[in-house]
Automatic annotation (TrEMBL):
Protein's name in the database: Lipoprotein signal peptidase
Gene that this polypeptide is encoded by: lspA
Top-tier EC class: hydrolase
Pathway it works in: Protein modification; lipoprotein biosynthesis (signal peptide cleavage)
Membrane topology, from the record: Multi-pass membrane protein
Transmembrane segments: 51-69, 76-94, 114-136
Assigned keywords, A-Z: Aspartyl protease, Cell membrane, Hydrolase, Lipoprotein, Membrane, Protease, Transmembrane, Transmembrane helix
């Protein structure tokens, strides 16, 4: 819940302190905050498909929650990865329910990379941790 809370607080701060598409440079040529509204998924794919996300996300969260429940005897990296994935999905789902879009804000100025948010980062870290578990540790507990 800490990740979800921080994600929502940061999104609230962005929406109340920056105008839409406003850029606030934090570290020149490296990192900026840019307020964007995303009604798609990562990299703005499936733009405008809100009903799809509203139906799919609760199912994904429930499946991940079930896997997390079953993971209590698995490696901690696996459980942590699932937890991060749930937090990321929930953070963006709250935006979709509340606003009809997802608030994005982190811009990496040194590469051409889509603007993202804390929930996206949590999802990414979670997926990486689950892959690390599957590649290096799954056979230990299996």
């Amino acid at each position: 819940m800490v990740i979800v809370g921080c994600d929502q607080l940061l999104k609230y701060w962005i929406t109340t302190n920056l105008a839409l598409q406003q850029v606030q440079t934090l570290i020149p040529n490296l990192f900026s905050l840019t307020y964007l509204r995303n009604d798609g998924a990562a990299w703005s794919i499936l733009q405008g498909k809100q009903l799809f996300f509203m139906l799919l996300t609760p199912i994904v969260i429930l499946v991940l929650g079930y896997l997390l429940y079953k993971a209590r005897r698995q490696h901690r990296i696996y459980a942590l990865g699932l937890t991060f994935m749930i937090a990321g999905a929930l953070g963006n789902f709250i935006d979709r329910l509340r606003l009809g879009y997802v608030v994005d804000m982190f811009q990496l100025d040194f590469i051409n990379f889509p603007i993202f948010n804390l929930a996206d980062s949590a999802l990414t870290v979670g997926v990486i941790l689950v892959f690390v578990y599957l590649i290096f540790f799954a056979d230990e507990k299996g």
